[in-house]
Structures are given as C-alpha cells and as structure tokens.
Sequence to fold (164 residues):
Amino acid sequence: MKPEHYPTEPAHLWEHFYQITQIPRPSGEEEAVRNYVIGQAEQHGHRWQKDSTGNLVVSVPASAGREDRSTVIIQNHLDMVTVKTGDKDHDFRRDPLALQVEDGWLLADRTTLGADNGIGCAAALAVMTDASLVHPPLELLFTVDEETGLGGRWAWTRSCSVAA
Fold:
C-alpha cells in the first residue's frame, strides 16, 4: 500500500516507481520486474527484445513530427542493492518494499529503497507510457545483474560489438 503523502507528480513516474518497489528484484532474479516492463511495452504497443542474459530493449517510436530525429538510448538496470538493518525481517527475494514518507523524504522501512536504479527504470517507463510527452525515437535498455558485477552490461556490450 502506498504510504500517506506518496509523491503523485509526475504521475507516470511515481506510479511506475511504486510498482517497481513492490516487485522483489535482487541481482540474478530480475524476471518479475522484466515481465512488468514487457507488460507495459505490450500494453502500449511497443516492440521489445530480450537477449540470452536477460537484458531487455524496448523500441518506442518517435512522437509525430520527431521521426527524423536521432534515436536516443536510455539505459537502466533492473536489479537493486539488497541491504537491510539487523532488526528488519525482510526477504529481498520475496517481499515488496515497505515504503514510508518522513519529513518529505520517500524511504523504505529499514531496507534500501531500490532507487538505484528503480527511479531510472520508472523514468524510462514514464516516457514510454505518457502519450503527452514529445520525444525522438527511443531505445529503452534494461540490463540485469548490475549490482553484483555488471554482468548484464558486459553481456550487452559483447553482443553489440559482435553485431557491429
């Protein structure tokens, strides 16, 4: 449940961020959050592609009148840092984050918030799902396993250099 005073604007950004915080996503276990991104892409009619490592790219066509612009790549990672205090009973493989707002700050109850890079993923999703935004063609890249060695990033780099 969203805490009282949870941010509401920009609406697409904060709704996606909330949904992401409710999906457990430690490194190596990004399938559920990847499926959330895929669901959003399909719901909005965007093509997506997944590589053998689990990295995902979503292609978002340009807004009307911006088709001749260069494609912009927005890269994020799906996993999160999984740290908690010793007195907190939390399983990062199973439990959603318990959010709270204190003195205007969005926090998680005695765990990391997952804002690195959850807010980046939410921003990319907000651009993809907010039809009022004007943008050039976009390639939204969501990599895996960043927090434990940049595994997804290195796999993506290798696949791009082979394809070139």
In short: The chain has one domain: 11-163. The mean pLDDT is 92. The first strand starts at residue 47 and ends at 50.
